[in-house]
Amino acid sequence: MSAQVHEILIYKGEEHLMASDPFAQFLLKKNIKIKLRSFSTGCLRGYLGKWEIKDNKLYFIDFQGQAFIGDLKQFPEEIERAKEFYRKIRVPNKTDKSSDQIELSPTQIVSLSIKTFFVDQEIIFADWFSGIIRLQTGKFLFPGSTGFTSIYEEDVFLKFENGNLIDSKIVKNEIKGRVLPPPPMINLE
């Protein structure tokens, strides 16, 4: 696995690199089986997300991803939205009597947004998430080659229960000589 592009978390008014994937818990808890299309080996989860903490609550504020039409069976409104898009850009054929009939290939790629998963919500409180989010902050010290293993000056660990921030801890990282520490793991219990 290649080093992965980070999602962004706005914490205390500043954007931070997030070395966690809280959206995966949403997909599991809601039993959503969707294969998001990885657009790069540097983003195997198949999407970019943006999050924000306000009043000690975690909010999901942006999502950009792609999927194949054939993988969207649980999202019929996305399939219809794609068909409508292709109806609008389609150049009518004078001999074609079925101009409203749009058949999309199962391998047709569709862009997804946060509205794919949260159709009627403007503010998305991440009440499904319980666990630890790791932020990588400060000066970049050493590149990692897999996942989120790069080392930054500090790691900020934020513990959540049902989307509520309940604890945090800052760990200072250093590179001593040529021996590199593994990415820190922490228990906030």
Overall spatial form: globular
Report the oligomer.
single chain
User: Runs with pLDDT <50, length 5+?
Assistant: none
Strand content: 35-45%
Q: What would you say about this model in short?
A:
With 189 residues, the chain is mainly beta. It is built from three helices and nine strands. Strand 7 and strand 8 form a beta hairpin.
Describe this structure in words.
By secondary structure, the protein is mostly beta strands. It has a domain at 1-129. It is 13% helix and 37% strand. The chain is built from 3 helices and 9 strands. It has helices at 23-29, 76-89, 114-117, and strands at 7-11, 14-18, 47-54, 57-68, 109-113, 124-125, 131-142, 151-161, 164-172. Strands 1, 2, 3, 4, 5, 6, 7, 8 and 9 form a 9-stranded mixed β-sheet that branches. The mean pLDDT is 79.
Labels describing this entry:
189 residues, mainly beta, 9-stranded mixed β-sheet, 13% helix, globular
How would the blueprint of this fold be written?
Blueprint (H helix, E strand, L loop, with lengths): L6 E5 L2 E5 L4 H7 L17 E8 L2 E12 L7 H14 L19 E5 H4 L6 E2 L5 E12 L8 E11 L2 E9 L17
Parallel strand pairs: 1-3
Antiparallel strand pairs: 1-2, 2-7, 3-4, 4-5, 4-6, 7-8, 8-9
